[in-house]
Amino acid sequence: MAASRLLLIAATLLGAVVPLGAQERPLVVLDPGHGGDQPNVVVGDVHEKDLILRVAFAVGAEFVAAGYDVHFTRTRDVGVEWADRRGQAEEAGAIALFMLHAMRADDPAVSGAEIYHDATNGPSTALSNALADQLRALGSRVLVEDRPDWPFLKSTTVPTTMVELAHLTNAEDLERMLDPAYHHVLGRAMVAAVEAAGGG
Ligand SMILES: [Zn+2]
User: Fold this and answer.
1) Of 181, 85, 76, 82, nearest to 138 (Cα)?
2) Which of 30, 62, 86, 178 has its CA 20 to 30 A from that of 15?
3) What is the residue range of 175's domain?
């Protein structure tokens, strides 16, 4: 029996409060895209960098509620280098990295999500496909695409998926993305994807 396990039992018997760290909760890293001088998609007064940060916080709350620890690559309006986003996840020993984005299209009729991954990486592919299943169950059209040449998707240690959650140029998608309750729905979908892909 591991020493930490014995300590946990001893602490429980003594009625002591067990520090959170002692419970070894699996860690998920959430990466809100862009930030700082890069708003990226702008539709009216909606800036992708700000909207996606709010989405990330709600998603994080759902992971915490489901028993995970969460690390954010940014928690305010600052730019973060691509390599640093992946690097933070690797350094933290994450079981999953979600790179969160929203997109636009010239045709306002185009809606739905797009998910990018490195298809040569089994765990990243499993996570991406599980997330696609979850988003389809929410009624989104979802494309899953292989991006073997995007270095920030390549990690030998952390299953990584990049998701464009919706088209902000589509009225229905935008309405849903501006609803704080939907951010939590997305969070529960990501928790379910991690669990379906074998994490957690
Ligand atoms: Zn983006």
Assistant:
1) 181
2) 62
3) 25-196
